[in-house]
Amino acid sequence: MSKKRILIVEDEALTVLALQQELAELGYEIAGDASTAADALRVAEANRADLVLMDIQLDGGVSGIAAAAAIRGHLDIPVVFLTAHASTVTIAQAVDSGAFAYLLKPYTVPELKAAIEIALHKHNTETAMRQTLSARLPVALANLS
């Protein structure tokens, strides 16, 4: 099985470096990094990321929540938020964006791995279900005629 490619979207350089090292040690491949929402969308598409680790506060004026919604909507890539923001409003916005997980900083490496693995599994399951439903829908519609 090939290594999963993870895009890091974070505007703090030290955090990016730490994540790159931790993810490599966990066996993931780094698909790139970005510090703005626009760069995140561009890099996710160009580098074929399997998952995005997304901070909520980004450079450039567009939040990670808006970036996550765009990435999920246009590229169907699962997003895991990795942030220090834990307000009820922020979490609700993250849920509405279609996030697959929400991890608070400071995190532990086992927590990071668990969030990533659960998000990847959930995304694979959803994709398989959509494919199954797409295959069955024409048959179901034909039976209605």
Provide structural commentary.
The protein has 145 residues and is α/β, with parallel strands linked by helices. 55% of the residues lie in helices and 17% in strands. It has helices spanning 13-25, 37-46, 64-75, 88-96, 109-144; strands at residues 5-9, 29-34, 51-54, 79-83, 101-104. The protein has a five-stranded parallel sheet with strand order 2-1-3-4-5, with helices on both faces. Strand 1, helix 1 (13-25) and strand 2 form a beta-alpha-beta unit. Helix 2 runs parallel beside helix 3 (64-75). The radius of gyration is 16 Å and the shape is globular. The chain starts with a strand and ends with a helix. The model has no long low-confidence stretch (mean pLDDT 93).
List keywords for this structure.
five-stranded parallel beta sheet; 145 residues; globular; alpha/beta
Give me the secondary-structure topology.
Elements: E1 5-9, H1 13-25, E2 29-34, H2 37-46, E3 51-54, H3 64-75, E4 79-83, H4 88-96, E5 101-104, H5 109-144
Parallel strand pairs: 1-2, 1-3, 3-4, 4-5
Helix pairs in contact: 2-3
- Count of discrete alpha- or pi-helical segments spanning 4 or more residues: 5
The first-to-last residue Cα distance is: 43 Å
The helicity comes to 55-70%
Query: Residue ranges: pLDDT <50 for 5 or more in a row?
Result: none
Spatial strand sequence of the major β-sheet: 2-1-3-4-5
